[in-house]
Amino acid sequence: MQPLPDAIGNVIVFGPDFTGQRLVTHWLKRLGWHLAIKRIGDTCCDQSIGALNKTLWHYTVGDDMDPTLPEWMDEQIRKALAWYDENQPWVMRDYQFIYTLHYWAQYLADKATAVWVDKPFWETLQSIRDRDGYLGTDGVEQLRTDYDICTQQFDRWPGRKWKCDIRRFAAVAGQWGTQPAPGAENRAAV
To answer: Which among 29, 60, 87, 108 could disulfide-bond with 34, CB atoms 3.0 to 4.6 Å apart, if both were Cys?
Structure first.
């Protein structure tokens, strides 16, 4: 596992489903990071990010990872990120980041650490089977593809990044408990 970055700051959590992103996100929230649950207009900010990711996902075709976006999409992203600018440090998580993280680099690479929550492939596969009972050949291949895409996204992220092995996360989370969350007040004791 990579060492914890000196200054983790704001965080984008990503990784294939069932690898532990929710655990990492909620641990950071407990330590003082803001989780996007406040409203912007009629929508929750985290839902706005999810909706944007869904739209961005449609721009990703095959191996094409060109981060060029239409002007209207750029405006929507900047509007959704306004809440984050006012609520630092923040953590955001959306499953679709594994497909869309490269688009977010132009907006967040200098503002956030990309945290890839990693878990061995076969353990993730077993977690899915434990929940769903069966995962067909298509599901196994999709999971392999998701792992490959995470590697590409992580390698391309131009800012701070950290690959977090979920199996060793508890020890690392203990380190976070001794580091003040930048700008956070009333952090929960670990």
So the answer is: 87
